[in-house]
Design brief:
408 residues; TIM Barrel; two-stranded antiparallel ribbon; 45% helix; binds flavin mononucleotide
């Protein structure tokens, strides 16, 4: 049977072409074309030297811890409720006693000004706009006072501590951080020694990056990154002086590998605010820390950057939540790449999740606007997932809405 055809008129085609007005500048338009954290990662890869991208993107040894952690999120099956009122959904929650627009904390990441010259200031500004807390690293590249000055609510800036070999210096740093108005201390305990980040070794990465024949060659490919690094304040750690060294040398030479649970008493004397311990990977350790009186724990394997072949923290989460009472806030990180991942962790009992690379990809892709975009993506994905699950508030995210591969 032959189809009867007719000639199209321009007046019929025109409305189909749709002339979307071009909104924002070039950077904003480029970022708007990123619909997922993966899209931001692809943009990031094109905008910073390879050693910088690899430092952020990479993990330790065979990178199995990271891959498995992400696979755990991918293995989740949701069981949504239908016919629930989800026109108005409240994504807000309370973390460390303060209201937050969603259960997300921007994780501490070292050497942030290497990813983009605006570094921690850009992250703090975007986090403040989004109404989320941001934990600044001991290996931060911006003085804590300056980061606090950028945040809308200074109490939303947290500080992450690595305990120094020289305790007097730890004490000095803690009183400076406290004087800046910070209340929440995140003590990272999964770095007795540096993990072996093979990509950094192979790229010959030092902190700060040194000018070698190879880096000079890269300058030609990433001129604006180098121009910004060389023409803004020097790229150094905010808390200590440093000549160019590998991260392994810095960590192993500066931080104390003999820290034990007994040091928590010393820390309590130094820090009157909340103490969260990050890097917990076993139920019995979580129970011990709860008994020792910490305010929260972060189940984490450091984004797979320390011990390789570690258990996916998401998998450990339900057992830890069962073992502890509500007085300890249980959080989780490693592998979070979407708002659906956040919903999964909440349904399994987490109070909040930390995310590191997700916002760093945004930072590398487009500075402060890039972090804004990363947070918009995570927030809109979280909201939509809650609506599709039939959850009107974070309290409605319940274990019966989720199956993890390998569980029941
Ligand atoms: C580039 C980079 C630097 C990091 N630096 C630190 C740090 O200085 N202190 C710390 O406690 N954790 C650090 N982390 C680990 C993060 O806090 C967090 O545990 C991890 O990024 C979570 O995994 P995700 O990147 O998959 O979200 C770093 C992570 C990355 C990616």
């Amino acid at each position: 049977m032959s189809t009867k055809r007719r000639l199209l008129r321009w007046s019929e085609i025109r409305p189909l072409i749709g002339s979307t007005p071009r909104k924002g500048n070039r950077l904003e338009r480029r970022l708007q074309r990123a619909f997922t954290i993966g899209d931001l990662r692809a943009q990031a890869r094109r905008r910073v030297p390879r050693a910088v991208f690899d430092y952020t993107d990479g993990a330790a040894d065979d990178e199995l811890s990271l891959r498995r952690a992400r696979a755990a999120y991918a293995s989740v099956t949701f069981h949504p409720h239908v016919l629930r009122p989800v026109a108005e959904v409240d994504t807000g929650t309370t973390i460390a006693g303060r209201p937050s627009t969603m259960p997300l904390v921007l994780a501490p990441t070292g050497f942030t000004r290497m990813m983009h010259h605006a570094g921690e200031r850009a992250v703090a500004a975007a986090a403040a706009r989004a109404g989320l807390p941001y934990a600044v690293s001991t290996l931060g590249t911006t003085p804590i006072e300056d980061v606090v000055a950028v945040a809308r609510r200074p109490e939303d800036v947290w500080f992450q501590l690595y305990v120094w070999r020289d305790r007097a210096r730890s004490e000095e740093m803690l009183s400076r951080v406290r004087a800046a108005g910070v209340d929440v201390l995140v003590v990272t305990v999964d770095v007795p020694v540096a993990g072996r980040r093979l990509r950094d070794h192979r790229n010959g990465l030092t902190m700060p990056p040194s000018l070698t024949a190879r880096t000079l060659l890269q300058m030609a490919r990433y001129p604006s990154w180098w121009f910004n690094v060389l023409t803004t304040e020097p790229l150094t750690f905010a808390s200590f002086d440093q000549r160019a060294q590998s991260l392994t040398e810095i960590i192993n030479g500066t931080f104390d590998p003999s820290v034990t649970a007994a040091d928590l008493d010393w820390l309590r004397q130094q820090w009157p605010g909340r103490i969260f311990v990050k890097g917990v990977q076993r139920v019995d350790d979580a129970i011990d820390l709860a008994r020792a009186g910490v305010d929260g724990i972060v189940l984490s394997n450091h984004g797979g950057r320390q011990l390789d072949r570690a258990e996916p923290p998401l998998q450990l989460l339900p057992q830890v939540v069962d073992a502890l009472d509500d007085s300890v806030e249980v959080m989780v990180d490693t592998g979070v790449q979407s708002g659906a991942d956040v919903a999964a962790a909440l349904a399994l009992g987490a109070r909040a999740v930390f995310a590191g690379r997700a916002y760093l990809y945004g930072l590398m892709a487009g500075g402060e606007h890039g972090v804004d975009r990363a947070l918009q993506i995570l927030q809109s994905e979280f909201l939509r997932t809650m609506q599709l699950l039939g959850a009107g508030s974070v309290e409605d995210l319940h274990p019966d809405m989720i199956t993890l591969a390998g569980s029941h």
